[in-house]
Amino acid sequence: MDTIGNNIRLTLFGASHAPEVGFVLTGVPAGTRLDMDAIRFDLERRSAKNHAFATPRHEADDFTVHSGIQGGVTDGLPIRVTFPNRAHDRSEYKPVARPSHADLCAFLRSGGREDISGGGKYSGRMTLPLTFAGSICRGILRTRGIEIASHVSFMGGVHDADLDPMMEKAPKLDPFFPLVDPSVRDEMERLLEKARAEGDTLACGAECAVTGLPTGLGEPLFDGLEGVLSKYLFMIPGLRAVEFGNILAFGSEMNDQFTDGGRTLTNNSGGVNGGMANGMPLIFRCKFRPVPSIAKPQTGYDLIGEKPVPLIIAGRHDTCILPRGLAAVEAAAALALLDLLLENDARREGSGLDGLRRGLDRVDAELMRLFAERTELSKRIGEEKRISGRAIEDAAREKEVIATRTAHLPRTLTAAGEGLMRLLMDESKRTQRAGMNLYLIGMPDCGKTRTGRKLKALLRLPLADTDKLIMERTGLSIDEIFARLGEGAFREMETTALRSIIAHGGLIVATGGGLPVSGDNAALMKNSGFTVFLDRRLEALHGQDTVNRPLLSADSRAETDARIDRLYAERHEKYAACADLMLDPDADGAAERIAQAYMRFIETGDRL
Ligand SMILES: Cc1cc2nc3c(=O)[nH]c(=O)nc-3n(C[C@H](O)[C@H](O)[C@H](O)COP(=O)(O)O)c2cc1C
User: Fold this and answer.
1) Residue 295 and residue 421 in one domain
2) Is the shortest distance between the CB of 522 and ligand 1 below 6 Å?
3) Is residue 318 within 6 Å of ligand 1 at its C-beta?
4) How far apart, in whole angstroms, are the C-alpha atoms of residue 382 and residue 431?
5) What is the domain count for the chain?
6) Whose CA is nearest to atom 29 of ligand 1?
7) Which parts of the chain sit beneath pLDDT 70?
């Protein structure tokens, strides 16, 4: 899933070496003033250029806000921001999976289709949009008195002092290399220097504190504070463990005894009990693996040759995920906490008419989002069906869908649930039919191109022509293909052209006269479109030009006409058999009738 959140929904997109990375954030209330300087500062904290032992890949991290923010204030539209990838260099990357990277898993999972160069979407680069989106949330949390702070708790074997778990306010630390005890920095940097000089990398840890959380924040049982927070945090590449508070050997040592106002004398629980904030500072620690790209000789896996191969990683890499990764840790925490906070607000406001209506508004918004997601999935299913030649209608599956979807509804809702599912499935089928082609078939010179052009204007759909497609692909005329390669080769090309037209979908298609005569082609057309036989009168077909119509070319006009007669006799029945609609294209309003029939088919599925 590239999307997370119930109230504040975040979608990340792009990849390390794609043209861009970016995010869409929904749910931020309209009219929220954003501190753009604070957001830029968080991006700076994450940027490699501000860290001595970070990757020499220096991106400007400049961004474009496409929607949702105007003059630094949110307008209620989804916030969409992109960051171009400028400093990537694909030449460095080979189809060899690097040890302990996501390469092999992503390659196999996507059947080799995913672009995994530079780590693809599993790269640290994805923490850039995360940081921006998290910084927006952090600003909102700040207005509610919630502060987040973090520091490098260890690097290799060098440890910083712990944060004060009893803190009233989050401490102010050096934003670029935060440490509770800055005196350990030299030792950490010496270790970083040594690791870099040896072509190695370092494990590290972060400790994070959040103050000001309302007591009770968290949605037990499955959306408790620790679970939700961890889910966001584990998006950060390289993260291996998240830990809350301290675990001491005995309950008598560990238990936090109460004092005035429900506060406790110690904070071993790390601010959370039963998945809910307990009013004390939330304290959690993240452990990161050493960056997997090391400069020492290793054994990779050749994804094409499918065998282990010696590997030297040349690219540009961080020696350690921290300190720059702290910006991502804080961002992930801010996103998780704001999402939970809004859930908390809704629950508390849930009483009274206004509160209940707000609840309904949220459910409806979620229903609409799910409806859009369902429609998108249906569209993709439609494409699969079209390409694999399967019919859109599947009565058995529809029955099963209705039965399984309504099985857990209370009895009083079953009938309404079934009605709702039927409506949804009708819409799915309509969406799937919208990708169906409109095939025009018939004898040579029956007016497929002429009628196709009129339909193009009426339906505003692109017009494709199988003969033209073949000529473009081969660089040969139809006459030349017949003369040099023979009719058999041409028929194969027709089927290939038809398959690519089917994969595209939503086209008006002028087909070559012989194409639908093949039973296989007719079957492909049946499940991928609506077919119209332009049944032009035989006399009107006489006397036609024979260029690129090799089956008709003869020494005399009389002989050509005789061939047309024979072809007409042979094919008329076959054309009629695979047509949903048959009409004379020379009749008044023929194109309009076709357009109407096709539109009706898309809307209702009715073939005439
Ligand atoms: C801010 C940041 C920077 C990173 N830089 C690098 C890097 O330069 N080279 C590298 O190999 N991994 C880097 N990583 C870690 C890898 O992306 C990560 O370890 C890898 O994708 C495997 O995923 P996993 O460790 O989560 O299993 C970085 C991670 C973060 C959060």
Assistant:
1) no
2) no
3) yes
4) 8
5) 3
6) 124
7) 88-93, 350-351
